[in-house]
């Protein structure tokens, strides 16, 4: 391990921006058909090369006349003109308007020879078959759009760098343009490193430590969102020759190469050596957290940036340093939606000395203000990706942010929307269905106890609490249901488990839920009752259960351990046992209550939860052991 | 013409919204591969069906140990463990950690049997080849991420209605999902009506009154921007049977049919009759300006909306009434960028009784505030499409908006950006090049005189003035150039035109510029000099020029009339004559000055103009008859 690189002399974040800006990521300009041009950026100025309209054109339905023939005409004293014919849009006039005559004309039709004005139909009357009464005098040019009046040939139509939106499509159509020269999209190659990575959709071998590749797909989507074209390369392990071959291929074919995916220092070392040997390394390590091991350099004619390995870190560094450079080259400035401002919901302290990119979640409070709270589950968690909405840049010399302080949040995507609801609490299958009826909710299944704790601190809109609450928190009960809980065992209960006593007295491998879970609280209470009954201390029963401290994350997890054969008994719900085809030994029924932050009961998201709870029997539906209350 | 429909009993705008909302535009849900899922909306909830990670995983590089073996270890008193082997990411452990041993482990690797914690490499030392010094005590679980700790199988991962952005792609990848069920995109058929319409790229016959189809392409781009899929149908004229066939085809194949394109009342009548005969007409005519002739109904299983004919009107009605309905069905809420607020730059009066959708331009003033000004060139102009940024909804009972009043602008596209600069004034080829060097400028080539007038009223950032100014306006001269002007004649000057006197004295067909143009002012001054010389009144010379009042829109237009053979002489620039291969008779040289609004000299766009003018000789370049000054 002595070959590992140390990240001394970290570059300042501004140096990283400058280093990336110094590289060329530009794609070649290209020609695209009009119907694929939306969202692209004009590569060069486009001047009109024809007049629009290309002819003198009636701008009203009515009669084409010689203006001087209408002199003096009014309602009281109309002029009579002979009807010489008609001109329709899309047809060449086959009539000439001589003095004393007129021709019927439709909006958009070519002005017939001789005519110099149009009298609108509302100011005329038919008089027999071949005479028209004109009840208004017109001047030459009235209701006529002369050739080139809209756009004249030779005039500047659209400048270079123009973003093509529907209205530009309209102007280009008017000019008869069916293909346009647009800026190239930077091609961005993504090389993921790590022998353990498997493509989504492929088979995963967990015993070999395989995991699905997260970064490649996340970053590829980020590249496309920033206006680049992403190209995924095969996974590379930490073999130097293989890595060199893949990186050189990518550099040959792309304007920018990103490496990403591995959290393994040895793979990062190999990349470092390839870039140092075959390209140029501009900087190695940036004074930012996360993101310290970032690399910036070039390889062949391509720019190169090495992203950190953890998903949130990789997306954060991509969003902060790389996406702006891709947008710049693509000519797509960052949309205004890409940042929001809000108030810190909590006070946060920082160690000084390194810029920090803090992942945060967003929430609207009762006054419609945006609250910002840090999300920190350790940057290795993929779930942080969807629990955080963006990043707050905290300067290297900032030691704390106060509660209520205004901060700017760089959203992970301009399409990120504020959740309509923040809920925290028990993991429960009926709740999951309830959330399906709310538009864009966010729910953190951290357990009933944690839900109540956070509700007391005032951040979430609702807490979901299962079983007896050990804490009194001011809240509004929005409704709820009951659920039957107990011991999940293999199908047909081969060990004949009958109740809690079997867990204590027999040699059964048990899997528990964590202490924040309402299921765990009910189990603890049941054990306390059993201890009372037996006249022993509760801990003596607990100590007798093999696996009491073996806790897993979600409500189905213990049952899945049973299903997988690594446990004999799991704490869980009847509904889960039924769903997974397992046996079930009931221990009780517990309430699940949705409790709202009293200040937030009028929030739309809370109202939506409340409305869904009004029809709670629909929500609970066929979930075995669930009842509306 | 008696069959024309009158729009009596106009519906209120809210009724139009309600009528459209009552129609079903929903497309069918579909399954798309992960790499095409960005921007789409999940059709159903997605629960995890595997644990992430799928195994107990080292979260640090270091040594896997039995925690109890490290008890009491610290820097002063390290513990020595035997190195039993190594485990790498992506490989199945082939080592078991017995008491007193450890195994080297990489971040992400599977914890070997026996081990329950990891000591990070920084707290260890190699001692010979097969022993490791452990300088820190660890507890069971330290630096280990247990199976399912990130996402547990059975847990709710993403809810229905979730917009898929890069971070959701990340979560889906982690779950190994390679295709997702997403909401269908509403398919929107666009039937353009009007015999005169030609597709961009096809040959145009102006003598038959043909024009390029603008609306179909503009609206198609708008449909796609709103999350729909646009399908263009062949142009239909005003033949009932053909129209019926096309509309029924479109209704069969699409969720929504829009008709658009014609300004001809007869074509609209035909559509009206088809919908009335074959479908259901919900409303006919809306109390909104523009957009009165809007139709809403259904045809077969498809919804139907008829848009007005003029491009800006069509886009305005589409944006106000139709795009929100498409977004709703596609599950894509309107982005926050789609509206901005600003202050009215002028006072505007309205006739009461009908809601008005006023096209407006936007501009940033010296204080960074957004100014909003009406753009009204007659809604038939295509150029209004790019001169307006969006629409202000003015209620039916509003009789005026005050200068400085706050208004909300619905942008024509969420991608519309505020121009960095608003310029008004002379049409000039060097100016066109100068603007190429400014990011996102807006320039209205309304002539020098109009530029000065507007600069005096304070709206634009700069005015561009050619020739002698007839008005004294406070401004800052940013620089400029000179240009040679005169008479453009056919190549080799076949009529031997020598100067202005020939125009007066000979029978030559002339084409002029409009009175706002600086060229026209210089011409008028030259004629005054000739009149003085001859001792006659100026108007007698003007009257003697055939075509003096025949004015065309842009600086090249007179020369193009000469090129096309419809005039013998045109007012113009030497540069234009050279470019088009025409002859030129010089009459003089005039200054072109870029003059800034004194309050706006520090605006970025004005600074960019100023910087470009510092290198004016680059801008003027090879333009014949142009000189920097």
Automatic annotation (TrEMBL), chains A, B:
Ordered alphabetically, the record's keywords are:
Molybdenum cofactor biosynthesis
MoaB/Mog domain location: 189-328
Q: Name one GO molecular function term.
A: molybdopterin molybdotransferase activity
Q: Which InterPro entries match?
A: MoaB/Mog-like_dom_sf, MoaB/Mog_dom, MoCF_biosynth_CS, MoeA-like, MoeA_C_domain_IV, MoeA_C_domain_IV_sf, MoeA_linker/N, MoeA_linker/N_sf
Q: In which pathway does it act?
A: Cofactor biosynthesis; molybdopterin biosynthesis
What's the protein called, per UniProt? Putative molybdopterin biosynthesis protein
Which Pfam families does UniProt cross-reference here?
MoCF_biosynth, MoeA_C, MoeA_N, PBP_like
What the entry lists under SMART domains is as follows: MoCF_biosynth
Spell out the GO cellular component terms annotated for this protein, sorted alphabetically and separated by semicolons: cytoplasm
NCBIfam families noted in UniProt = Glp_gephyrin, molyb_syn, PRK14498.1
Could you state one GO biological process linked to this protein? Mo-molybdopterin cofactor biosynthetic process
Where on the tree of life does the source sit, at the highest rank? Archaea
